[in-house]
């Protein structure tokens, strides 16, 4: 039976919040068709009154009226927007009433980016742990103190409530839904079809070490960071990195700390552990993960990982992949 996915939009919504997850579910159907299987999802873009709805980027989408969405609804996703548009959405009676009526019978209820505000305004996530865009975490926590706002996660699953952080994390969350529904292998095929760099687990930070460093780096360091990320399994000590950018070790160390705000060793360990956390969500042996991130042998990997996160890689994997 088709599972009806209702992606709820409103005036001046963030386009990618809607089209990202929609593309994931459509690609899952495509993968099933390749296997000779029937479609699993029916995706509906819906709005309180239906018709043409403009996004914040100027692209206008055609929507169904919420009252005319086919039932039963399997998954409800409310998209985000800038503060003014989100506030207007929380004050739209038709939207709040439909969400309140439909949430109790839906298998999953979720939001992308600042769509969490809309769920919270409807009283549907009281007492839940939730995610939202990093810039909205503090306002959300202040406005709805019963929520536990996870400012670090890409997406959070609390019971049947799924909430994601900023914009493209809706794709990560939708992939996790496909994995739950149709299996990890098919979700990986969807990710490959969409040319995603990696399937990111929900517990990954909104800010990767590379992204934080790139915001500060310039000159030769910008290229060096990208190269190091792609070569974690090689020697990345000060002498190797300094040689890569043509500086003496002492000069390199001084300039790196000044530019990035941490020592080369600290930075490299951070990116290696960040990569390890992603790989732990996959079915790879610990020995292979340790090799890929440059922390072999496995005993060294376990020691470094436990020192940082307080648990062994094995226990971390068991805890975070229990779904």
Automatic annotation (TrEMBL):
Q: Does the record bear Transcription regulation in its keywords?
A: yes
- Which InterPro entries does this UniProt record tie to the protein? Class_I_gatase-like, DJ-1/PfpI, Homeodomain-like_sf, HTH_AraC, HTH_AraC-typ_CS, INH-QAR
One Pfam family cited in the UniProt record for this chain: HTH_18
In this chain the HTH araC/xylS-type domain maps to 222-319
Q: Which SMART domains match?
A: HTH_ARAC (SM00342)
The record's listing under PROSITE patterns reads: HTH_ARAC_FAMILY_1, HTH_ARAC_FAMILY_2
Report what the protein is called: Transcriptional regulator GlxA family with amidase domain
């Amino acid at each position: 039976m088709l599972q009806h996915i209702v992606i709820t939009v409103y005036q001046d919504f963030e386009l990618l919040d809607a089209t990202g997850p929609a593309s994931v579910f459509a690609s899952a159907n495509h993968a099933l068709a390749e296997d000779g299987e029937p479609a699993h999802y029916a995706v509906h873009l819906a709005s309180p009154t239906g018709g043409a709805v403009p996004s914040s980027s100027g692209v206008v989408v055609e929507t169904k009226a919420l009252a005319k969405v086919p039932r039963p609804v399997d998954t409800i996703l409310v998209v985000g927007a800038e503060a003014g548009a989100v506030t207007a959405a929380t004050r739209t009676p038709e939207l709040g009433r439909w969400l309140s009526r439909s949430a109790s019978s839906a298998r999953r209820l979720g939001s992308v980016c600042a769509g969490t505000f809309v769920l919270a305004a409807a009283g549907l996530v009281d007492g839940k742990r939730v995610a939202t865009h990093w810039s909205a975490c503090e306002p959300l926590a202040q406005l709805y103190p019963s929520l536990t706002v996870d400012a670090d996660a890409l997406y959070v699953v609390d019971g049947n409530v799924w909430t994601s952080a900023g914009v493209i994390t809706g794709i990560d969350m939708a992939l996790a839904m496909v994995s739950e529904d149709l299996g990890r292998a098919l979700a990986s095929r969807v990710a490959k079809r969409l040319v995603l760099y990696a399937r990111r687990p929900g517990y990954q930070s909104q800010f990767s070490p590379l992204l934080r460093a790139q915001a500060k780096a310039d000159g030769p360091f910008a290229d060096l960071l990208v190269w190091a990320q792609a070569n974690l399994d090689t020697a990345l000590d000060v002498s190797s990195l300094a040689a890569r950018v043509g500086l003496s070790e002492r000069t390199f160390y001084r300039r790196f700390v000044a530019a990035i705000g941490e020592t080369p060793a600290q930075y490299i360990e951070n990116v290696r552990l960040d990569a390890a956390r992603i790989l732990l969500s996959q079915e790879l042996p610990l020995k292979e993960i340790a090799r890929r991130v440059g922390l072999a042998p496995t005993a060294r990997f376990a020691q470094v990982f436990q020192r940082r996160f307080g648990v062994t890689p094995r226990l971390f994997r068991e805890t975070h992949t229990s779904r």
